[in-house]
Amino acid sequence: MQDLYLNWIDGAWAEGGAGRMTVENPGTGQALAEQALADAADVDRAVTAARRVHESGVLTALRPVERGRMVRAMGAWLLDHHEDLARLLTLEQGKALWEARNEIRNAARYFEYYGNQAETLEGRQIPLGAGYMDFTVLEPYGVSAQIIPWNFPMEIAARSIAAGIATGNACVVKTSEMTPLTSHAFGLAAKAAGLPPGAVNVLTGWGHEAGAALASHPGVNQIVFTGSVGTGSAIAQAAARNIVPCVLELGGKSAAIVHADADLDAFLGDVRRGIFMNAGQICSAMSRIVVHRAVHDDLVERIAGLARSIDVGPGIDRDAPLKGMGAMASGPQLDRALALTARAEAEGARLVTGGRRLNIPGHFMDPTVLAGVDPASEIGQTEVFGPVVSVMAFEDEAEAIAIANGTDYGLVAGVFTRDLDRATRAAGRLRAGQVFVNEWFAGGVETPFGGYGKSGYGREKGREALWNYVQTKNVAIRLR
Ligand code: NAD
Q1: Fewest C-beta in 10 Å: which of 18, 105, 370, 410?
Q2: Which residues line ligand 1 (CB under 6 A)?
Q3: Which one, of 250, 316, 234, 260, lies nearest residue 451 by Cα?
Q4: Where do you find CATH 3.40.605.10 in the chain?
Q5: Model-wide pTM > 0.70
Q6: Strand ranges (E), 219-354
Q7: Nearest alpha carbon to residue 353 among 293, 277, 302
Q8: Is the Cα dihedral 92, 98, 101, 106 positive or negative?
């Protein structure tokens, strides 16, 4: 671990025009390291370097398999440095060490998956009758701007860089100012993989400064943003001004519908991962549980028991899978989750367990269960982004679907039942980009992920993500 981390611009480390900031360890509340902050001029240098790489044709001239090998080599580099990166991630983000290890492995997996996809992108031949030959080519947009949040800084940056380079784009990544340290690995990995300087640039800076400068830069050809709805809207407006496409991966208030015939023992495992992993700071968290009245009371008790059994404390000491939960990523994030929980209680929800700040240094919240939540209330509608689950009861299938669909979001949804007809009916009616049946987070790097409604548009993960990084050129030839 270094005392100071810099920006990676055009294949070299650089200070930033916006000075430095101190990155805090949310597990202790103590200073961790200094980070150089990029300003608009640094963003301009990074975009200029990326443009040079794109316009030189060096990435697109490569046979795709060669580009794919470099992408896979970036993932291999991450695996070679897995333990050091996992520890650094825990220290800067707060998550338990077992989760940080998973995150580094998952980040490497994106490089493997998209490295393998590089040589599968093909155009098509379109028959135009005698005298013509016509074919399409899938070409990279050019410079891909990627703006990253703090909850999964490695996984989310990895999925965009991997798909961007695999399709021949040069990338400028703006990491979150809350979790910038681990991301320095992408610069080192790109260099080790043999990518030319400027193909991958990694900057940290304030959102309103470096982030806004990147989103509005006229040299950017495509934007991928993961973060909050408000920032997503600002980025979409910047993209519209420059007429460039963007992918928006935003928030969620996702519901698991639990029928009376569901396997409740197995479901508890889904709750553990769905809402208490990463201290609930997951866009696709199971933040609402909509349960049939027949099993409601029993399930609420069991979920409360699960919540009480979770061992909360500094992530660096918690390396056994599923046992421990770490800190929330920042003091304001914790305060917001506590305030939303307190207002929920005041609005009539029953606090079954949790709702407290832990009386130790750092930003820790007790795993929290609220029951009797009114679906239309603030807590029923608002993304907490913390370890807080809202339980509500339903009588019949139609009511359950209406509750699940009854927010502005539409990121993911789940249905738990042994009745395949019922599950299939629900999958058709749920308004969400991903539907999980009998396992929350079922799927993987291979399956498309993205939102309906205010959860955003465009898809990351899976082959679908690749279509966001390429544009179609048609070549029509008159044969004489
Ligand atoms: P945020 O919107 O505050 O910040 C995200 C990134 O945008 C950061 O890098 C920030 O510096 C930058 N930014 C802020 N203002 C900007 C501006 N005006 N112009 C350009 N960039 C700007 O979000 P956050 O608090 O970091 O992340 C939490 C949110 O992200 C939650 O709502 C969560 O649901 C969502 N999220 C979604 C997904 C997904 O895949 N759908 C994944 C993770 C997080």
Answers
A1: 105
A2: 147-151, 156, 174, 176-177, 207-208, 211-212, 215, 226-228, 231, 234-235, 249-252, 283, 383, 385, 411
A3: 250
A4: 4-251+455-476
A5: yes
A6: 222-226, 246-249, 255-258, 288-292, 311-312, 324-325, 350-353
A7: 302
A8: negative
C-alpha 31, offset from chain centre: 26
According to CATH, the topology of domain 4-251+455-476 is Aldehyde Dehydrogenase; Chain A, domain 1 (3.40.605)
332 CA from centroid of ligand 1 (Å): 15
Closest CA to 458 of 27, 160, 102, 49: 160
Q: Which residue, judged by its Cα, is nearest atom 19 of ligand 1?
A: 212
Residues 133-165 pLDDT 10s? 999 999 999 999 999 999 999 999 999 999 999
458 Cβ contact partners less than 8 Å away, ≥ 6 residues apart: 224, 245, 246, 247, 248, 249, 450, 468
CATH 3.40.309.10 location in the chain: 255-408+412-445
Q: How many residues does the chain have?
A: 480
Q: What is the pLDDT of residue 277?
A: 98
End-to-end Cα spacing for the chain:
66
CATH code, 255-408+412-445 = 3.40.309.10
Interval 312-333: pLDDT, tens: 999 999 999 999 999 999 999 9
* Spatial CA neighbour of 417 closest among 256, 262, 257: 262
Ligand 1 pocket test: pick from 283, 457, 468 the residue with the most ligand atoms within 8 Å of its Cβ: 283
64 C-alpha to ligand 1 centroid (Å): 32
